[in-house]
Design brief:
alpha+beta, Pnp Oxidase, Chain A, 3 helices, 8 strands
Length: 146
């Protein structure tokens, strides 16, 4: 049996809790010629943005530098958060770097070939079942709708 749809404020709070507490997301990028690439990466939710780090030589980093549009997905098929955003190369603060390392269980800061990328969400959707699809958009154009 399908659970009742969550209210929009509850869905936003659930989304914020998961962004704060989950460790990994599927990160989807595309090269300039449109070739897609999907990779799981650890992230830190900080100040309304997501902080990622990956090896400079892998396709995700190359794609983010060439085409700074990204999609991230957290959760299961029947409890998903889908984030669209823009990316910039970032230099995290000391506190962010420490928080990222603690959360991810990996500290890329001492490694010269692991840049950080900051994702600024432009659209966030969240839904569990079909009864939440109608109101799945929680953020549009970088502004919370709830």
């Amino acid at each position: 049996m399908t659970a009742p749809a969550r209210s929009l404020p509850d869905r936003k709070q659930d989304t914020l809790n998961r962004l704060e507490n989950e460790v990994d997301a599927w990160v989807s990028t595309a090269s300039l010629d449109g070739t897609p690439y999907l990779m799981p990466l650890s992230f830190l939710w900080s100040g309304g943005t997501l902080l990622l780090s990956t090896a400079r030589t892998n396709p995700t980093a190359r794609n983010l530098r060439a085409n700074p549009v990204v999609q991230l997905t957290l959760g299961e098929v029947r409890d998903v958060i889908h984030v669209s955003g823009t990316v910039e190369v970032a230099e995290p603060s000391e506190a962010e770097g420490e928080a990222f390392a603690a959360k991810a269980g990996f500290d890329p800061r001492p490694l010269a070939n692991y840049p950080f990328f900051r994702v600024t969400p432009t659209r966030i959707q969240a839904w569990r079942e079909v009864n939440e699809l109608k109101d799945r958009v929680l953020m549009e154009n970088g502004a919370w709708l709830v």
